[in-house]
Amino acid sequence: MITLKGEHIYLRALEPEDLEFVYVVENDETVWEISNTQTPYSRYLIKQYLEQAHKDIYEVKQLRLVICYYDNEVLGLIDLFDFDFKNKRAGIGILVKDEKNRAKGYGKEALKLLINYSFTHLGLHQLYCNISEENQASIQLFSNQGFKNVGLKKDWNLVNGTFKNEYLFQLINN
């Protein structure tokens, strides 16, 4: 896996040392709505996941990269999921963990790097993302990178007993 370098951050593959970071992120109930998580993950399961993280995107249909600041501070995660080689598309998701690191351009830079990688190296034709109707920060982030809102999925996710709408955004590589 090549390292994807930006001006302020870089993206790298998951390492065994990321166990605690991934454990904290996956068990943070405040982000479960974003990831459709419903139960906590054990360190054991995350360790197993990290041991398999080296597998090729063509085999496992997903790619998770770590967003790092150049002092090696881990800022978040960015994913390609539902990788569909035949139809040349994948879903994309991003999380900058700590609020203090949000709205500083790190997510924007990470997203640009992964979009470029997806279209240039993976030969994808399109990327898509699913964003809660209430998540204005993500709507703005993806819209500013050229993603278009192509539909509203009514009552799509049940969150704390309430159904919430979700937008589908697409970016087509022309």
TrEMBL record:
<dbReference type="InterPro" id="IPR016181">
    <property type="entry name" value="Acyl_CoA_acyltransferase"/>
</dbReference>
<dbReference type="Pfam" id="PF13302">
    <property type="entry name" value="Acetyltransf_3"/>
</dbReference>
<protein>
    <submittedName>
        <fullName>Acetyltransferase</fullName>
    </submittedName>
</protein>
<dbReference type="GO" id="GO:0016747">
    <property type="term" value="F:acyltransferase activity, transferring groups other than amino-acyl groups"/>
</dbReference>
<dbReference type="InterPro" id="IPR000182">
    <property type="entry name" value="GNAT_dom"/>
</dbReference>
<keyword id="KW-0808">Transferase</keyword>
<feature type="domain" description="N-acetyltransferase">
    <location>
        <begin position="9"/>
        <end position="170"/>
    </location>
</feature>
